[in-house]
């Protein structure tokens, strides 16, 4: 089966201070931050709320050419307790590429649509550089911001060695010992409030590129990462990589996830799927439930789904790079109404280009506008 992976552009894919604009593309692109049939989407607001905080803001990954052509209580008590303590709203971090564009392009005819339908929505904050000296403070800036508002931030550690199997998103820590030390420092910034951790996109689903020994070592490191994150902040909810509905069979994915610690409540709250991809929410719900069934573990394990660009599903021709005709998916929420589905999230920030409609990893207004104004498929 042809698989699908996420792409983070090495030029800068994390949260933090905004870089200066490139004057050659300033009318349409915002530069990345320096640091590094299915249900219809929920209706989007027509106008921005004047008091709404800003969205999360780091360059997030794009699909690569490997895409398909197209301790704690356990069981239901654990699930009930976790759900009851989660604030009702996700956090929107105030530094992002889309906000930079909105602030500097008030007269652009696309402004109202992009501001109301993308810039207002909470999105994940990526940490994709191996910078152990600064990662604790950068994570803490996001988690403390969420805690101050009583909202839930979503953070994405993305520094596993050998990520993307040496493809477009190659990079990360130099080895697993360095990665383990980086995770320790990442965890130190989690604070004590609710936070969702989308742990290492592609790290499990794309593990077929590794030798059996290297795969076992990676999975051991991921299991350790989950334990460290949850030990540092018992209110952290850690989710492991389940690929997406067009990738590995659920039994295969579950077997790897089990080795990576995803079935253990000491490491995991469940799985995530569809990061930077386009598969429909209905397909992902079905896929995730099959993976969870095969995974075993406590009944309280759930799933979160990236719905940022899946409003029209995956393109029929299999195009992975800024495919035309895609649409924003369901707005981010912690109340899905679906059993075992803990949240719909915008992990990939809509409008950050895969590299075809703009420079890879940069917010591109034309692409964002297309996503925000495209009609749903019939």
Structure in words:
By secondary structure, the chain is of the alpha/beta class. Helix content is 30%, strand content 10%. The protein contains nine helices and eleven strands. The chain has helices at 75-85, 97-104, 111-119, 132-149, 176-187, 212-232, 250-259, 281-295, 365-373; strands at 6-7, 29-30, 62-63, 125-127, 154-157, 195-198, 236-241, 270-273, 302-306, 341-345, 363-364. The strands form three sheets. Strands 4-5-6-7-8-9-10 form a seven-stranded parallel β-sheet, covered by helices on one side. A two-stranded antiparallel ribbon has the order 1-3. A two-stranded antiparallel sheet has the order 2-11. β7, α7 (250-259) and β8 (270-273) form a beta-alpha-beta unit. α5 (176-187) runs parallel beside α6 (212-232). The protein is globular, with a radius of gyration of 19 Å. The two termini are 28 Å apart. Residues 5-26, 32-58 and 64-87 have low confidence and may be disordered.
Average residue pLDDT: 82
Classification by helices and strands: alpha/beta
The number of helical elements comes to: 9
Q: Nearest-angstrom radius of gyration?
A: 19 Å
Low-confidence stretches: 5-26, 32-58, 64-87
Using the alpha-carbon principal axes, give the shape.
globular
What distance lies between the first and last C-alpha atoms, to the nearest angstrom?
28 Å
Main beta-sheet annotation:
7 strands, parallel
Question: What strand line-up does the widest sheet have?
Answer: 4-5-6-7-8-9-10
The H-and-E topology, N to C, reads as EEEHHHEHEHEHEHEHEEEH
Helix content: 25-40%
Strand content: 5-15%
Oligomer: single chain
| Number of β-strand runs | 11
